[in-house]
Design a protein that fits this description.
Length: 179
């Protein structure tokens, strides 16, 4: 089942993203995203054993994409967005430790790097979409009686889905929307 989900994520990424210099980075995040979402849903943990190598590989792939395209400003923006996103999630985790864990903070920085590579609009949209999607999911669970106000809900999958939506919108509609 996990292999099938990874295959679907790869196929969707290829379909939406198309052939670009940053396609290997998008594919990496598609597969790592499936692994991370699955683990977070099962255990409410985002393991460093997946996050750390994904972060290193993403950084290397974005450097290669910069070498291929000359888009060094995109690489700098990726670094700045990773820091901004990571610090933002860290502040939220410190303010409400029961709400976000350090895995969410690290994932936020990782996704911030990818979305920052795509543009500031993508970075903002990705973070907002993750919170909106997670909020809607929580509301649905509450209304269905499957959760209470104190039920812990894995946030990583919603962060990942928000990033995927923002990436797809940016790649496909960004030039039209001026993103």
């Amino acid at each position: 089942m996990l292999a099938g989900a990874c295959a679907v994520a790869v196929a969707l990424t290829l379909l939406v993203h198309g052939w670009r210099a940053d396609l290997p980075a998008a594919l990496l995040l598609a597969v790592a995203g499936v692994l991370l979402a699955t683990e977070d849903l099962a255990s409410h943990r985002l393991p460093n054993a997946v996050l750390a190598p994904t972060a290193v590989a993403l950084a290397l792939l974005l450097v290669v994409a910069s070498l291929a395209t000359g888009e060094w400003d995109a690489l700098l923006r990726a670094v700045l967005a990773a820091v901004a996103s990571g610090v933002g999630y860290l502040l939220l985790a410190l303010l409400r430790p029961a709400g976000l864990g350090m895995g969410d903070v690290k994932l936020g920085a990782l996704l911030g790097a990818w979305l920052g590579w795509l543009g500031w609009g993508a970075a903002v949209l990705g973070v907002l979409a993750g919170f909106v999607l997670g909020g809607v999911a929580g509301l649905v669970l509450l209304l269905a009686g499957r959760a209470t106000r104190t039920t812990a809900i894995a946030f990583g999958p919603w962060m990942l889905l928000g990033a995927a939506v923002a990436g797809g919108v940016t790649v496909r509609l960004g030039p039209v929307l001026g993103m």
